[in-house]
Backbone:
């Protein structure tokens, strides 16, 4: 039978010796990224790219069919290696093979204090920031869906707050 060690008052286990640093693992750079439309509840994707297209980080890979202004941006720059489809040609994921050197789409600097709510909403839509997935609580419309729709008005005050406090754009 194995020795049972009961821990009380924390996880500090008094063991003799120290951990060696020789066994440190170095992670390989990721070569392929995928954006999965099923991670966004209520989204029917309409592809904005095809296999073999080159995209920059921030370019739209697909849009919401119900609200074409909501773009889902590429996390990296590279070449669209595959558009994986399931039954009835449903888009399961869009795979992007990353470039060695990343390039980004420049959306320009914005003066948030001079912008009204509609301009902030357009800036967020253009950059693809209104479609954050479920685990990120920053732009949610309660109680459903887990991302803000482009037609919801309460999101405007939240958008202004987020851009002023978090992004500090000038």
Residues:
């Amino acid at each position: 039978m194995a020795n049972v060690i009961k821990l009380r008052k924390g996880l500090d286990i008094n063991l003799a010796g120290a951990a060696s640093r020789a066994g440190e693992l170095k992670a390989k750079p990721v070569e392929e990224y995928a954006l999965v439309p099923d991670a966004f509840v209520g989204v029917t994707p309409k592809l904005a790219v095809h296999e073999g297209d080159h995209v920059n980080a921030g370019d739209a890979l697909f849009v919401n069919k119900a609200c074409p202004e909501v773009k889902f941006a590429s996390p990296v720059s590279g070449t669209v290696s595959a558009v994986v489809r399931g039954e009835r040609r449903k888009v399961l994921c869009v795979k992007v093979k990353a470039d060695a050197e990343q390039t980004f789409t420049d959306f320009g600097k914005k003066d948030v204090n001079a912008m009204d709510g509609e301009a902030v909403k357009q800036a967020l839509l253009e950059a693809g920031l209104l479609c954050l997935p479920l685990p990120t609580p920053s732009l949610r419309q309660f109680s459903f869906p887990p991302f803000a729709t482009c037609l919801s008005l309460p999101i405007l005050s939240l958008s202004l707050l987020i851009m002023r406090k978090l992004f500090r754009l000038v």
